[in-house]
Write a structure and sequence with these properties.
Layout (H helix, E strand, L loop, with lengths): L3 E11 L5 E12 L4 E6 L5 H9 L6 E5 L7 E4 L11 H5 L10 H10 L15 H13 L5 E5 L7 H17 L3 E5 L3 H7 L2 E6 L2 E7 L13 H16 L3
Parallel strand pairs: 3-7, 3-8, 5-6, 6-7
Antiparallel strand pairs: 1-2, 1-4, 8-9
Bound molecules: adenosine-5'-triphosphate.
Length: about 240
Amino acid sequence: MSDIRMEDLSRFYTLPDGKRVAALKGCSLSIRDGSFTVIVGKSGCGKTTLLRLLAGLERPDEGTLDFGGSRPRTGVMFQTPRLLPWLTVEDNVCIWRHGMGGSAELAGQYLKAFGLDSFRKAYPDQLSGGMAQRAALVRTLSCQPRLLLMDEPFAALDYFTREKLQDELMAQYVRQPMTIVFITHDLDEAVRLGQDILVMHKGCCGGRVTNEEPYPRPSVAGRMALKTDILHILEEEKETPL
Ligand SMILES: Nc1ncnc2c1ncn2[C@@H]1O[C@H](COP(=O)(O)OP(=O)(O)OP(=O)(O)O)[C@@H](O)[C@H]1O
């Protein structure tokens, strides 16, 4: 897979009152092949829209989105696990049987690795929030995505469960070559997970901060300087007139 390049990308929506809003406006950025890229930015700055364009769920109105060839095998994970309540954990993680082509062997390995082996026959309402999100991660990973898109996947979890899932995701990223694009509002999570941290501002990329610390990264470390860099970019934006 090549780097993903976006040039002057715009996406407009028309509101019920007829007003046109630009979720993305002339957005140009690149995502390095094989990187763990994190996207931060204030509410409404276009993060989810960007992810939906990357996922192919929407098309840009203007500009180009170039994968350097064909679209890579893509997995998407949202803030909620989106498991089907009438299916067991096992059947949920193998839902791709219905046409998406995952690997049952891999699903079995991941269920073990993510501590869900004894819950194969459980139903979603018998799982904690963290377990349900793990099941969603297993479902996505067992399709062996080359591009993994994650929209605030751990936002609804408590501090400790979130850290555990961050650990598991980093371990998986080290094991399996893929590009991850991960949206979060949590700067601690951004600087812990991200190699490239893109700061979005009003539909564009407002700046980029990099963290070359090797994985796995400990939960507490001197990442304050990185957080300060991100906050500076966000602060500068506050000064920009509307
Ligand atoms: N389907 C839609 N119809 C109309 N407007 C939309 C639609 N989707 C997004 N928008 C608007 O586009 C802008 C960007 O939305 P988007 O969801 O991409 O932002 P975000 O940065 O992900 O926000 P948050 O952090 O709150 O999830 C917002 O002003 C939003 O109201």
